[in-house]
Amino acid sequence: MVQRGNKEITKEDVTRRMSYLEICHTTKYFSIDNVIGVGKKGKMYKAKLPNGCFIAVKRFYDSRSFKKQFGLEMMILGKYRHRNILPLVGFCIERDARKERILVYCYMSNGRLSDWLSDGHEEEIRSLLSVACDCIPHFPVQRPTMLEIYNKMSKIWERHEMNEDSKTSMQTEVTSVSSGGDEIVELET
Highest taxon of the source (predicted)? Predict the structure, then answer.
């Protein structure tokens, strides 16, 4: 079950076939006023189901050109559920003259990730991702110490005029274990 606001979308609603007419009604016949995104594959519309749930409807421009993309998106997003992946709740395939292919997702009220990333925070995000990537080597000796991570984060905070975590900066000591694992160094702050 997926919770969206005060409404719930139950398992029965997940990845169900929807009629073209039902989608037309929810989007007010694909009204330009309901467009929330335009991409190279199609337009995204905000819509409201009769039960009060908001959905995002992706209508592909040319369903024949994007048939493979549609199938992959439907197969992958319909099968996998994760809190960081927008859930697919329905689809529509019209085989008449229109040959419509439409995907229906849960609506996310806080917008697209790309909007958040392209809001002047690219350098900050790149810096944070760099620190995160430094921490993932398989062998512990290749990973930075907590002190090294703290120092890198402090530089990012200073560069972007961010406040660092006050709990971390108020500690009386920060310890660092060397890559050999047998030396502990205490630093007074």
Answer: Eukaryota
Rounded Cα distance, 104 and 100, in Å: 13
**E strands, the chain, in order:** 2-4, 7-9, 16-17, 35-38, 42-48, 54-60, 88-93, 101-106, 173-177, 184-188
pLDDT in tens, 46-73: 999 888 889 999 998 876 677 788 888 8
CATH 3.30.200.20 in the chain: give the residue spans.
2-115
Q: What pTM was estimated for this model as a whole?
A: 0.54
CATH code of the region 2-115: 3.30.200.20
Q: Helix, strand or coil for residue 102?
A: strand
Residue 115: Cβ-neighbour burial (10 angstroms; 0-12, 13-18, 19+): exposed
